[in-house]
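input
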Amino acid sequence: MSERGTALVTGGAGFIGSHLCDRLLADGWRVVGLDDLSKGRIANLSEARGYGKEFQFYNLDIRQEGIGAIFDKHGPDVVMHLAAQSGVRPSVEDPKHDADVNVLGTLNLLEAAAVHGTRKFVYAASGGTIYGEPRRLPVKETALSGSHPQSPYGISKRMVHDYLLYYQRYRGVDFTSLALANIYGPRQDPHGEAGVVSIFGKVMLAGETPTINGDGNQTRDYVFVDDVVHAFALGVDAGSGKLLNVGTGLETSVNHLFRMVAEATGFGGEPTYGPLPPGDLRRSCLDPGLAERELGWKPWTQLGEGLRATVEWLRG
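output
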């Protein structure tokens, strides 16, 4: 048995989840990874599988009844919940599916955690969507009160926060909710809709022309995956009952990001421009001050440094 106990990581074969599995194993946890492999990849778990019996993996959807049996068998002390329908565009196209996975799937996990005495539930919230179109930037956690998310994805992610408060108060499951900015880094899917850094990088390395949706002046807060994983690790023992922003507090326009990725890849061309998808925010940037006070967390990876690491991974 691990000295730290057992951590269940949902979305464990995904971009962030697989990095988190690696980090927890290195920290001395026994890790149970859970993923339906709709987005996650077994290849992402090669490092985790090197830990032998300290790591186990289940190919399972978080909405399935089999969740209870996994809690029965492993009795996780901590749940790191990253599995989700994680796209704005798919949520606009199919709000029911989005709610089914993000709300009912999370409730399935919370119920199992309550029944089996799990002590902490660390949740991946979406800092880029739960606050809606922010009035002030960088956005603080207090903006959640009275916020109106512009996509079903943002609505489902915001709703879970109220369920977390309920389960903490009435069912004994402590939580920390991390409102994540736009995460990038190695293992990010260059074929999805959310990973603009890896999408740009992959297209540029192939010598093809990237497309920017909208005019490119929209901004996002880009935070490196290792920094995010560190926040999850700290959330095990701190931040009780809190929503905490995990971002850099810096706005970067898509046009500026394009130029930085072009420099990292050696791409000399210009982008083409396409329509802006529905539900997308104009500006997004998170104030990480509360996470520093509650967790002792700060982002430490500069954007240029993180982009170079991501491009090197994309080069293979």
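quick obs: The mean pLDDT is 96.
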